[in-house]
Every structure is written in structure tokens, then in C-alpha cells.
Fold:
Amino acid sequence: MDPSEEPPRPAPRLRQPDRSQVEARPRKIEQLIEADHPARVVWAFVEGLDLSPLTERIRSVEGQPGAAAIDPAILIALWLYAVLDKVSSARRLAKLCCEHSAYIWLCGGVRVNHHTLSDFWTDHEAYLEHQLTVQVAALMAEGLVEVERTAQDGMRVRASAGASSFRRGPSLEVCLEEAEARVAELRQARERNPGESDRRRQAAQERAARERCERVTKALEQLPEVEAKKQAQDRHKARVSTTDPDARVMKMANGGFRPAYNAQLCTDTHTQIIVGVEVINAGSDQGQLVPMLEQVKARCGRYPKEALVDGGFVNKDDLDTLSELGVTVYAPVPAPKDKTREPHTPLPEDSKAVGAWRERMGTESAKTIYKVRAATAECVNALARNRGLQQFTVRGLDKVKAVMLWFALAHNVMRAAALRAAAA
Structure:
């Protein structure tokens, strides 16, 4: 037969994917993640926590009517792992609890919703503060952390407020009048039309208007504080946000100005364990060293022997105070205006502690010690940035502080695991 007359070759028969089909496959939750998964490290930490301050607040108890509450251990573990996984949205976390193996493992078959997660994210600042203290104390008892030398640094993190929300005094008063009028209008509408179908929507609208009224009132209360920080001729320019009255406009790392908070972290230089957390709404770091070291003493039982900070923290009164407390400060000496003067030579008006600081920072040993600051404080700050700390999604100093405590606890959980593994 002529090859040109051969019949065409039939199409190949293939098994092709059909992703529309439904498949039921039995699985054991315990087998969803590997034995050394970070979620197991987080859960092991949570198992050692005292949850009684949280469980005492649960109103659903055995023998009484009501749905069972979610174990606080699950919520703590979810948020700690979420921080490590760069997740800070309650809605996204709730979705991951249905789709992602690690979150499904942490839930262990318990369903959670974003409302519960969102409330838990910010409602337990005091408990998180206490657990940070317990965590550091446990590491010190194990001999893994000594807190002989600390490094402190501040980072400006954008606030939830927008730049357009900042208003001056007269504008704030107008906003308050409008907010109060809106609350009264909604209340009257609810009384005129108390229909069952609209009750939830009316309640939500009234609650939102009432919350705005409260925020504007708080902004007016904080206005004198902001005015006091300005020169007399500029006090009429003072502005406060109507959405987040605690936020302040600060100069950011990129040179621009944004509504932000100043997050302060104090770190043990030897282990990179965070031993102090604070949040302020001042753009300057000056004056923040002594309060932070007081927090470290309350948490660790003693002051560190050495404290490393950058030039923005330098305050002569703080140097005198810390010298009396036995803390040696390592911070760069500012360049003198007189270029011919040696910056490390004590001045006639310097106190004994300030003069010793100038001389100390001129030595090679002090310069070597100071290099450790960037490798610890700035490294910890960079880790927090990489884990999603770019902008706060909550408002108010208390809630922002709670978020920073979550980041500190999550960071310490992983550092503690690494330290224990190295020690073993």
C-alpha cells in the first residue's frame, strides 16, 4: 500500500484532570502537618500557659444552658501562628482556618469566626503583658537568658488613621455637632419605625454614629496636649485625628510624614529575646530609655548592666539616673557645633556620668560593643516588619500595644525554641 494512502492515526487516549469532581477522602487532623512544623512549636508553648484569667470570664459553664465557648488556647495559638505567617486580618485568619492545614490542625475541628478572632486580637493587653513576663522569667530560670546587655530601638509604624482625618479645633467642634445630630436623628428614626426587620440595621447605624461621636470627643480632649507641644504662634495649627485620636503625624523612615505610632522594643543582645515592649505617640525617642529599663527591671528582677541605644535616645538626665542605678549606657556622642572640639572630651558643665559617657564612647572597646546594637535591635525590628508590621489595623494606644505584644510573644516563642535546640 502506498504510505500516502495510510489512514490517519487515531487521537491518543489520555487521562486528563477533571477538577470539578467531588472527592471524599478520609483524613486524620493530626497527620495534616509534619512533626517539626512551627504550628506544633506554638501549640507546645500555649499548652504551658495559665489560661485561668481568660476562662474565668467565660459565662458558659457545665450544667447551665448556653453554647460552649471556644477554648482560649485555640485563639492564642491561632494568632501567634498568624503573626509568624504574616497574617493580621481576622477575616483572612477565619478563612485560613477552613483551608490551610496548619490552621486546621490548630483548630482541631473547632470552628471559629472572624468576630471572635477580631475581639480576641485586642481585648487582652494585660494578659499578654503578663505572659511576656512569665515567658522571659521561664527562660531566665532555664539559664537561656541572662539580660546582662540590652539594645533598644523605636520604629514608626503607620496608624490606621488617614492624613485627611486630622482636624483643627473649630473643625472638630463642627464634627462633634454633626455627630451628635446624627445620633439623635437615628434614635428618633428607630422610635418612629421600630420594625423587627430593620432593628439590626438601625442598631448598627446608631452604634457607628455613637462611636464616631466618642472619637471626636476624645480628639477634642487631646487637642490641648497637642497644642502644648507647639510654639505659641503655631498652636492654632494643632490637629488631631477624628478616626484615631491617639495617632500623631510623624516623620517616617522614607522621609515622609504619616499618622503613626512609635513602637519601642528592648532586646537581650545575646539571645535576641524581647524583654520590653512599649508604644508611644511621640515621634522622638528621647526620654524613652529609663521607662523601658524600669519595665525590664520589673519583668526580670534587675536592671541590665549595659544598655545600647542610638543617638535619638541620648538625654543627660537619663545618663545621670542610669549611672546611679548601675547601668552603663552606650550611645553615640553627637558631633559638636565647633568642628575643632574633640567630641569625646568632657565639657566643664558635664556631670560625672555625662563626662564618663563621652570618654567611654571614644574608646575602641565601646565602639566594638556598640556595633552589637544594630545586629540585635534593628534585626528584631526588621523581623517584625517582615512579619507584616507595616501598618496597624487597629486604633488607640491600648489596642496598638496589644498588637505589639502579640508580635513580641510570637518572636520569643520561635527564639526560645531555637535556644533550647541549641542547648540540647
Summary: The first strand starts at residue 149 and ends at 158. DSSP finds 14 helices and eight strands in the chain.
